[in-house]
Amino acid sequence: DKGNHRHFMQKEIFEQPVVVAQTLGSYLRPLAGEVALPIPEFDFADIRRVTIVACGTSFYAGMVAKYWFERFARVPVDIDVASEFRYREPVLEEGGLALFISQSGETADTLAALRHARAAGQKIAVVVNVPTSSMAREADLLLPTHAGPEIGVASTKAFTCQLAVLAALAANFARVKGRLTPDEEQAIVRHLAEAPAAMNAALAHDEEIEALAPLVARARDVLYLGRGPDYPMALEGALKLKEISYIHAEGYAAGEMKHGPIALIDEDVPVIVIAPSGPLFDKTVSNMQEVQARGGKVVLISDAAGIMAAGDGTIATIEMPEVHPLIAPLVYAIPVQLLAYHVAVAKGTDVDQPRNLAKSVTVE
Ligand code: F6R
Question: Where is the SIS domain (predicted)?
Fold first, then answer.
């Protein structure tokens, strides 16, 4: 039931504050200021390396998790898309945790990669939204997301719930590794607990984003730029736009533009810049200015301080609430989802059932 929404995708975008709160509810103990996994006895102490494998949007959640695992737990992380992972003869040594992320828990490439990692002696952790799925059954450490059934083919709420679980997992891992003081853990818990309200504040910009849709709908190509954990958000924004509006889009690490893609910039290519205030902000803004200097039409997604600091020269800004960098990916996922959604509606495509795509890809 779509309720009073026009499409399942729209309903699922708007459900995110609630389902992320629901998911965090089983991973955080806010009063104690602690993260807690559903399987407390799982032993992280001997894990020396993490290998993350997934496809599509779930892979982008894994890319964000790589930053968190490395930053908080100081554990080396390798990440690959499932269809490449198995065939490159990955080195999987003792003490390795292989982490698979999947909404459906049935994606053929990811499942095959899981079995490959198991045969190579890795411990298997899975983040899945379908608790009865094949991947859930084959895991040593099952980490469910509580997004509820996701009907729209384009993944939205499952993605932000994956991020919520992965942040809690990274913090838990860091604590076991002795890399997190109780105060630091408490701060992480506090930031995560603030995510649902910040996501609500992001959703309040829906109409503004809808008003931008005609501009993007006219484009043949669209670029998305971000840095650090917001670089995967650029990839995710581009994927969402491609799959439901059929407009060609690419996400780039902002600093990589000048090594080639900047040649694409002209007045016909909208460039969506994802740049929350924080340690990487100034760098992203100087990459944005390189684009503007070449006539690029920039839409800046940032907070009030960021929008102010970035100055003039953008064609539009979308103001997000001020948030801690840890939760920025959960919050900034929303405007890129909404933009893709409204552009698809403006183009009249079949939003919930885009051409050539299936909800669950059970062939390799
Ligand atoms: C994008 C999308 C796909 C899936 C991918 C993996 O919106 O839905 O890219 O993310 O097919 O699916 P799961 O997560 O079910 O393994």
Answer: 38-179, 212-354
